[in-house]
Amino acid sequence: HEDGLKKRYVGLGLKRVPNIPSSMHFDKPSGWLYLIDTGNSRFIRFKPENSTYLSTAPTYPIEQPIDRYQVKDLQELVSKSDDVLFQPSGLLMHNGITYISDALTSLIIAFDDNWKLIEVAQTGLTKNSLAGITVGPDNKMYLVDRNSNRVLRLDP
Q1: In 18-108, which residue ranges form alpha helices assigned H by DSSP?
Q2: What pLDDT, in 10s, does the model give residues 80-113?
Q3: Residues contacting 67, CB < 8 A, separation 6+
Q4: Distance between alpha carbon 143 and the CA centroid of its chain, in Å?
Q5: Cα separation, 89 vs 133, whole angstroms
Q6: What is residue 51's DSSP assignment?
Q7: How far is CA 22 from CA 54, 55, 139, 156, in A?
Q8: pTM for the whole thing?
Q9: What is the CB neighbour count within 10 angstroms for residue 102?
């Protein structure tokens, strides 16, 4: 990604969990950047354009410096206190529904556009195996099973 811009946003309080990916989605029309924060068991968003420039910081190993921005409008949409997210990982926003895969439980949790729980779907996968989710050109959902190194299709 040599032609891309690198920016670091501070004030998010993100916490990683080793070996579990945390997904993100940028909604260009609204300007919201949606993030899965696996270590804090939450789903958040903010608008990068509303962030305030802080400084330029060097990176290691030596690369181009990265501009740092302070996040101003962080919103927590779903959290562990809602008793549905434990180790969220994958994120899919499709047809007005947000799907979050939970690595710990191997469940897929669906929310409407007001972040209200619609459904919790059993995948049949063992705990600690579910990672990313996406929709293919066939309009079917695909899941990553980390433990078996395979991609599965989910037919609703």
Answers
A1: none
A2: 877 889 999 999 999 999 999 999 999 999 999 9
A3: 6, 7, 8, 53, 55, 56, 57
A4: 14
A5: 9
A6: P
A7: 25, 26, 23, 24
A8: 0.89
A9: 24
What residues does 142 pair with on adjacent strands? Answer: 134, 153
Dihedral sign of CA atoms 40, 44, 50, 56 in order? positive
Residue type, 56: T
d(CA 37, CA 107): 16
Phi, psi angles (nearest 5°) of residue 20: -120, 115
Cα–Cα distance for residue pair 86/79, rounded to 1 Å: 8
Query: Are 131 and 142 within 8 A, CB to CB?
Result: no
CA angle in degrees (0–180, nearest 5) for 118-47-134: 45
pLDDT in tens, 32-74: 999 999 999 999 999 999 999 999 877 666 667 888 899 999 9
**Placement of tokens 């695909």 in the chain:** 142
Q: Smallest Cα–Cα separation from 7: which of 50, 62, 53?
A: 53
135-136-142 Cα angle (round to 5): 60
Residue 125 DSSP symbol: P
